[in-house]
Amino acid sequence: MLIKCSPSGWPAVLRSCWALLLLSGGLGHAASFDCSKAKTPLEKAVCGSPKLSAADNRMAAAYRAALATVPPEMKSAVRDDQVAWISAMGIACKAGVSASSTEQISLLGTFYESRTKELGRLVRHIGGVTFVWRSTTEIELEDPDTKDPDAKMESRAAGLRPGYGTLHASWPQSTGDTAEWRDWNSAIKTAAQNGLIGDANTNEDITVEIVFAGKQLVASEIVTFRMERGTPHPDDDSIEFNWLLQEKREIQPADIFREGSDWDRAIQASCVSALHKQLGNLPDDYADGRFAQKLHEVIVRPRNWRLAGQGLTIIFQPYSVSDYADPADPVTIQWAALKPFLREPGLVQ
Question: Is the pLDDT of residue 155 over 70?
């Protein structure tokens, strides 16, 4: 179960988090809040470490600067995001109470550094449109003693246990006040949050970047980085989220290519040539012809298409056409080469 952060429903160990947020305007000393009033493990950890105090000040300054640039109608949402982040960091601090001081300082330092960077890129102007990045940070705790939800909550209220997963997602929201942009805002938020699995054994991060923003199309990339405890390497993948504003939906092949034009075969031929140069001989398990089938499945799926001014780029997810240890790089086909197959050449240009 996720422990959410709300002013009326915080665990007892986090009741002064709201004060921490309100005082992060530089009114205190040694940190961005008054250390003489420090009560929670988080506040005490920050006040006891010059390194964390400095990180807290940098984060608070970045937060004030970001909030000053956010349009008035979105300030409340950004404040809510900050409250949720403080809550998650407080839970992480309490959950790591048995860790050494050095480990805890490193853990909290990572929280501060990532949030400060995120705040520095909170507001961006792309294609004549202003976007504000929203975010959520939550902690999923595990209790090895019981599987009963009520017993877990009682145990956590008494003292949170080491062992937790970090869930973080960030996504853009347009400030455009039209039905088209409101629909896109809802769609991109849903697409980003759908990737969160909520596992106490997993650290998970989902980020959204805008590749292209035009009058007809908004092309975004949703990147998921997921690391499960005990696994040798992370599980990382991406989705290309190409949204048609007027149609209020993701793009389909028929929106770009003329039906019956064999566009997929032309792209496949270009990809085969490029992948041979990258990978050399094909993997043994594709020698029976399945390589061509798997490659075709990648090519015809718009969520593997990165659309930009220069051309169409095919993105290959881990294991899609090669081993994890030998990943395939993206392949770009120029729009000029695809012109005979295009239905609407100006869609992304």
Answer: no
